[in-house]
Task: structure prediction
Amino acid sequence: MTIASKTPLTAGTKRLISLSTVLPWAFAALFLLILPVVFQTSSALTIMNQMAITIVFALSYNMLLGQGGMLSFGHAVYMGIGGFFAMHVLNMVEYQGLWLPLPLLPIIGGMFGMLFAFIIGSFSTRRAGTVFAMISLGVGELIAACSIIIVVFFGGEEGISGDRTMGPEFFGMDFASQSEVYYLTVVWLMIAAILMYLFSRTPIGRIANAVRDNEERAEFLGYSQRNVRWISFIVSGFFAGVAGSLFAVNFEILTEENLNLATSGSILLITFLGGVGFFIGPIIGAIVFTLLQTVLGLYTEIWSLYLGILFVASVMFFPGGFAGVIAMHRRPLSLGKLHLLTGPYLKVAIPAVTSILSLAAVLEILFHKRHGFAGDGAMSLYGITFDSHGYQALGLAIVIAAISLFLVSRITPEIKAAWDEANHAGDDQ
Amino acid sequence: MTAPALELRDLSKSFGLAKIIQGVDLKVAKGERHAIIGPNGAGKSTLFNLITGKYAPTSGGVYLHGENVSGLKPFEINRRGLSRSFQITNIFPNMTVFENIRCGLLWTMGYKYSFWHMISGQQDVTEKAEEILEQINLTSRRDLLAGTLAYAEQRALEIGITIAGGADIILLDEPCAGMSHSETALIVDLIRKVTEDKTLMIVEHDMGVIFDLADKISVLVYGEIIESDVPDAVRASVKVKEAYLGTTLEDEGV
Result:
């Protein structure tokens, strides 16, 4: 991602930190500071906290999937374990008078995430591919089952809860207010994200990529593929544990849901949606997912259906995820031909948005028709109120969808042509 | 007397009932360029895989500078100073050419599993990698993804990765496979250049390359070495002629 490594001249310089590396982080920090000034409501803060936690979790997941080539179906285990231990420590602070300022709690949670990753990784990282995936699935199921059985630790179905405000004050903050928790969370978000980014630039981080690409070759260069994966796995477990601790701090309750397979599945989805090939991918994925989940969730009950469609569409058409789509535009940009794309993009925007909205309308009307009370067909969509049981509205939605999709299909070749032109260097190479 | 750089003692490998390598004895002196030739299916690649630790031998041993390394993992053998290239191009396709070379350097330059160094700040690694890129004529391709290189360039990169770590014993598995005449000439020059003062073992089908490069040639047929001598002696050997053309002649003779 850094521009620094792109040109031979700057790559060899002795400057450890280049401006182009620091600038995005500085902007991100500034942005995170300003965010709560703009969105002040408690629910907005909750959404932002949730986002930050998901970002840390997704970044830690991408250390496995994107950086190390390990497809895990059980990453929630390490977040959950970290969270449960953090919660127990929180309760020790409250009841046994353990001295621990709340902002240090994620370190404890991270340590436990790391410990479990160390133990489980010792056998799961021997092989990548299907073997690793199946072990991660098995361990995920095992720990999730344990969480119901071992009530003393996991609290059974109710889970365990605590009170974050009982610890010693930290520079006058007792973390009773949502905004104090926000700052705690985003400081950890920055720390975790920067550390994970730096990890990817270390020798072991680069060799993790090498093992992902070609484990056999890496072995013939002196690296044990198992050790390389194991180290990535342990570090990833630490940050998952940090995410779990932040969850514990924010929501003050942890349940089986935090480490079950559904959570493991959704982090895979989030990371993939954002784009596994780029450091920023999981960040985008986490933001989009949380927005869809919370904001879209306010408007429609079938938000997860849309998410599923988005996921399938992404896998089929944009395997690089959101970050991949953005990165696709780097070449036209560097050739100074980005303007060739704006015309076709604007042209397709209206029919594309219309087709998405009208297809959503079809789904919503069908859903309303099926689940609405008998006789109560009144439905409101996009500010229009109509009878969902009649055929007019449904018919209209289908017709609009068909027309707009037809228009999209007509414009597609034009976009393709513009795309080829924009990516063509112009002179022969 | 110093131990040979590479020695095989009664090395055998069976896959089930199939005896692929049957008691190979071979000594490669330090600094020697040793070629292995033989018809298809003679077990040349298996021999390489035995030496480099991809397979464990069924019996017998592999000795590097007198030390028995049979049964060790590839990375352990590599750390003892043996590096290999592959018949099928085996690079890191999603990393840049520069990064491919750098991966070959990290272990031997002492960075190992380090997570406390920033890789871009390590001047020594960067310089060494640039130097190797220069040697294999890929400086202009530095920042391209390795997977996007032309075939011949990928083969050169393959050799670059192999020699990067500074191993003193280099095994090259058909480095010229699938190359045009002019490309082959370039690669042979490259091999000669980068294996200076090193022990080289090479498997190759192109006889021109073999007789051009090798100090000694061993002929492997059905898992056995039937001849191991200087190129001229091998060229004159009756046994070798039989092996390459023989079976059919014998059949006709009967």
The two ends of chain A are 24 Å apart (CA to CA). Residues 1-14 of chain A have pLDDT under 50 and may be disordered. Residues 333-423 of chain A form one domain.
